[in-house]
Amino acid sequence: MTDPIKISIITVLKNNHNTAEDCIKSVLNQSYGNIEHIVIDGASTDGTLEILDRFKDRISKIVSEKDLGAYYAFNKGIGLATGDVIGFLNGDDIYSDSEVIKEAAKAFIENGLDSVYGDLLYVNRNDPNKVIRYWKAGDYTQKSLKTGWMPPHPTFFVRKAIYEKYGCFNTDFGIAADYEMILRLLYKYNISTRYIPMVLVKMRVGGRSNKTLKNIIQKSLEDYRACRIYGLGYLTLLSKNLRKLPQFLVRNPR
Questions:
Q1: Which of 42, 106, 127, 222 has the highest count of CB atoms within 10 angstroms of its CB?
Q2: In DSSP terms, which residues pair with 103 in a beta bridge?
Q3: The pTM is what?
Q4: pLDDT for residue 245
């Protein structure tokens, strides 16, 4: 019997020759059967396309063309997705084990939810088993968004109907559109969500938002702009950043 809901996983990458295969295999190794994997490549030139070609018969859709950035590519993927639920797995990232999508699907099926999320590990770029930071998301309340809480976006699975109703990524944001999206969906529209108490994704350190001082400053300014749009202020942003500090203290999450 086919698994009852279809889950679309969107992978956005560009010049991820060293990590693309790990990312693709972590989707292929999922125990859940009803998965659509969509890969949006930004016209890679480093050998990534050769890796994608090796897996082309096992990837549902591959698009490779120049675009205006990651959030444009995410929106492109949402438009192509035919699943009931959409999740995102970047080209540098991997699922923590083979049961992640099964657990996400179970939460949607049993609870009739709009979205689910879980925990995330930041790991060494060359050794995904070496934990740098443990983002334990914890249970959600709408009030918690005012104190800087947010779910790790790579673990955030959302029904496609929600994107169709409330919009995709706001490309006016160059580096914090995921935070604006979360505030829009959870704070403004109060969609239903549920915490899955397990690590869902391993993310390699060195992502765009914290790669350079310039990007860190831009991220903070855009986070603050997102807060202001939804009636939140600098205290929310300050709390959001302070929440990250304890995440560096846990090295061996269970």
A1: 42
A2: none
A3: 0.93
A4: 74
**What homologous superfamily does CATH list for 7-248?**
Spore Coat Polysaccharide Biosynthesis Protein SpsA; Chain A (3.90.550.10)
* HEC per residue, the chain: CCCCCCEEEEEEECCCCCCHHHHHHHHHCCCCCCEEEEEEECCCCCCHHHHHHHCCCCCCEEEECCCCCHHHHHHHHHHHCCCCEEEECCCCCEECCCCHHHHHHHHHHHHCCCEEEEEEEEECCCCCCCEEEEECCCCCCHHHHHHCCCCCHHHCEEEHHHHHHHCCCCCCCCCCHHHHHHHHHHHHCCCCEEEEEEEEEEEECCCHHHCCHHHHHHHHHHHHHHHHHCCCCHHHHHHHHHCCHHHHCCCCCC
Reported as a single tens digit per residue, the pLDDT across 208-234 is 555 577 888 899 999 999 999 999 988
- The answer to whether the beta carbons of residues 78 and 10 sit under 8 Å apart is yes
